């Protein structure tokens, strides 16, 4: 691994090779992950549906316990605030045919990026929650001990009620040119404005290319490096795959020694490509993402989208292992004369969010999501 001379204390290398111990990785069952929660929810549903409903006509129940009350629960109380969504479903409002405010591309008039005029997601009256949806969380639940952070992307932060829980593992999925690297840099820039420190681990671009890209957006990443607030580490994906266990341990020490608050890996798809066998790929990526969670900082992974669907990552792994998933995709007109881009939030664990799809653009100042536009 190399850090191009960047160090938290001078000329020493930031990243050093760690010795590989003889211990066996923890079992997958040690994690309280989405799979175990799903099993518990299924068991709870089974117990609920197995109870006999009481009669509601004022008489005592029959001795046989016969269900005569039609007690099937249809309340629709399922909490979908942070669950995975069906990649094949595109959420959004019903088409508004004949509207003068809709352009040829199916977008309503934008307004300014991030600007709200009282109806940011099509249906929320003035004073209502952003996104035109009723939040399932109460004020008491929002005042929990879980600290939350903002992404720093105009319009997109408004689609998340209360912000993303701190120390979450975030993935940004998109095909080439949709702005995944810009998303990651903007995520770090917002943290720098709050006095944070960060590490950018790149497997695709050189260290100089990352710093130049940030400069083009007006973000002084070179100054952050000189002030010892940013470490940009360029790695070869083959080297990383061959030494992933030691690098995971080394990365944990790097974050602790550097005092980082945010971490970016761009891109995890290049790491996945280094494993030919699917089972090897799954196990290695699982262990690596678990080590990232144990690091204890908010981490963002970029991932290439699958060729078959823009809603899934290239190998369909990272979206199940991360706490939050943002999808960046192209939207083409019916005559294919022009292409625009749209973003949606596929899931955020422990946070409520809008399910709508919103258009965005990449400007000289970064990514701007248009709250006022609707995708039809």
Biggest β-sheet: count, sense, barrel?
Answer: 9 strands, mixed
CATH domain topology of the largest domain: Rossmann fold
- CATH class type of the largest domain: Alpha Beta
Strand content: 15-25%
Mean pLDDT: 73
Number of strands: 11
- What structural class do you assign from the helix and strand content? alpha/beta
In N-to-C order, the SSE pattern is HHEEEHEHHEHHEHHEHEEEE
Number of helices: 10
Neighbour order of strands in the largest sheet: 5-4-6-7-3-8-9-10-11
Radius of gyration: 23 Å
CATH superfamily of the largest domain: P-loop containing nucleotide triphosphate hydrolases
* CATH architecture classification of the largest domain: 3-Layer(aba) Sandwich
User: How far is it from the N-terminal to the C-terminal residue, by CA?
Assistant: 47 Å
- Indicate the percent of residues in helices: 25-40%
| Number of separate domains | 2
> Which stretches are poorly predicted, pLDDT < 50 over at least 5 residues?
1-32, 49-143
Describe the structure.
This protein is of the alpha/beta class. It has 2 domains: 49 residues, no CATH class; 279 residues, Rossmann fold (3-Layer(aba) Sandwich). Helices cover 26% and strands 16% of the residues. The protein contains 10 helices and 11 strands. Strands 5-4-6-7-3-8-9-10-11 form a 9-stranded mixed sheet. Strand 8 and strand 9 form a beta hairpin. Helix 7 packs parallel to helix 9. The chain is globular. The N terminus is likely disordered.
